[in-house]
């Protein structure tokens, strides 16, 4: 069945029209428009109609359908005028608004006298033709109705018939409209399918509060009756959502409101619908019952918790009073805004992972996974399979369906590689390729898997000396050392010991009224704490268990400290740097610190005067 139909004034032009469309190779139906029963046009199933003059106007006034008016090309009009000139000099051209105007300008060229008149309906058309006859017009030029009237009045006439050019032009326009309609219909069906299958309710209204869209989920909230409610006032169906009209009036959205609809609590978002980002043309409410939301959140939370791929700590969890840690946090927050690779340096126990998690939770990746692995905790072959994953049968003992690697699991999030300096050289080359290409290949596979991860690594070793001694790849080091964070040891920031002790006491001595005297705190400050914050935390925990006294004095602390193990510490600030700092590292540090020389020097782990010499050397002053 054709989607495009020609609606004719009467039967006279149908044969000609069908033949022309057949010559053009176009599938177009044709029928006479019944003024008494316009609905017959809709029974054809057509989407677009072609017509001319008064018939086109009548269809538009009666039916909400697209109507393409068949034009009268200029050359068709010239042919009719030339034919009329053979019948008489005084020619009356009578038509509707589709008729070309200004035809009187052709009088000198054709040596005729053209009088052109327009009408809005058949009755007016009849009067115009009668007036032309009284004025002595010899020939009438017009459509079927005009020429039929002329015949009855014994006036010579020339009918403007359809031409191939006119119908081809009209068909092309109708075909474009048809394609648009079919595309919109497909999109509407897709939208309807999406809205009717989702568990979330959707209701849209126009400026008057009339429902223009509603899905099955919304309908089921009020009853099991799923009869169409489009065109119904919202207040009659969902009085609980009357606030949606306020959104139309104010143009301001309302989010996360709890509304009770028919004994069901829902979390509702209401947003205005705007035309050209300015004029409010309606509003839409989206909602879901709270039970479904909490159930879904519970599943997500359990899945993440079971895997452990989440970051717990934030910068607010870092307890300090020292200026050095304040600067570390300031730099780390700047790093969080970037997506560049971060290398965290510091002795064991200074809180490197605490900073790594805080950077992740401050970044735009905070809703993604945080995957942490200690490179020193696993043998080389296991570390490789954990990082990169493997396919079924990749090695003896491999899982049946293979396994995702940690890089895959960290997709759209952050991977934290602790003790990166302990990664075997054989794996460093493969890890470097992942950093460069952001792609990973599982063991036993030949497929490349794109990944989007941020890499944060950490070490308690002097990694520059490891590079110098060929125990760590220099190309990998420069890849990792884009943003560097040096966390000072506890012995260099003794101001933090007091606040740390208070924090640990709240955890371990919360059920006892224990007081640590100032002389005891002084002893704790004088101790070097080779295990840093971790050792101090363990010491306070042990103190809360072993000590029977409610007053902790200097002697009790001395006795317990005497049993603490002593180890040689790594001093990052005083150790001679054997690997020169590159121009790129200096430039990056200055960029991150916005030109603050003190902050840049701390990032590079050098004195401010050393930074000045490097800036002068690399022409960065």
Task: Present the secondary structure layout.
Elements: E1 4-8, H1 14-24, E2 29-32, E3 48-51, H2 53-62, E4 67-69, H3 74-85, E5 90-95, H4 107-110, E6 113-118, H5 122-134, E7 139-142, H6 144-152, E8 156-159, H7 164-197, E9 201-206, E10 211-214, H8 216-222, H9 234-237, H10 243-250, E11 254-261, E12 264-275, E13 279-289, H11 290-307, H12 323-337, E14 342-345, H13 352-362, E15 370-374, H14 380-388, E16 389-390, E17 403-404, H15 406-409, E18 413-418, H16 425-437, E19 439-440, E20 449-450, E21 453-459, H17 463-468, H18 474-480, E22 483-486, H19 495-508, E23 515-516, H20 518-526, H21 532-546, E24 551-552, H22 554-561, H23 583-592, H24 597-604, H25 608-617
Parallel strand pairs: 1-2, 1-3, 3-4, 5-6, 5-7, 7-8, 14-21, 14-22, 15-18, 18-21, 23-24
Antiparallel strand pairs: 9-10, 9-13, 11-12, 12-13, 16-17, 19-20
Describe this structure in words.
This is Sigma 54-interacting transcriptional regulator. Residues 187-235 form the PAS domain. InterPro entries: AAA+_ATPase, AAA_lid_NorR, Homeodomain-like_sf, HTH_Fis, P-loop_NTPase, PAS, PAS-like_dom_sf, PAS_fold. With 621 residues, the chain is α/β, with parallel strands linked by helices. It has six domains: 4-70 and 166-177, 3-Layer(aba) Sandwich (Rossmann fold); 74-161, PrpR receptor domain-like (Rossmann fold, 3-Layer(aba) Sandwich); 198-292, Beta-Lactamase; 346-486, P-loop containing nucleotide triphosphate hydrolases (Rossmann fold, 3-Layer(aba) Sandwich), CATH 3.40.50.300; 490-561, Orthogonal Bundle (Helicase, Ruva Protein, domain 3), CATH 1.10.8; 583-617. The strands form seven sheets. Strands 10-9-13-12-11 form a five-stranded antiparallel beta sheet. A five-stranded parallel beta sheet has the order 15-18-21-14-22. The relative contact order is 0.06. Residues 570-578 have low confidence and may be disordered.
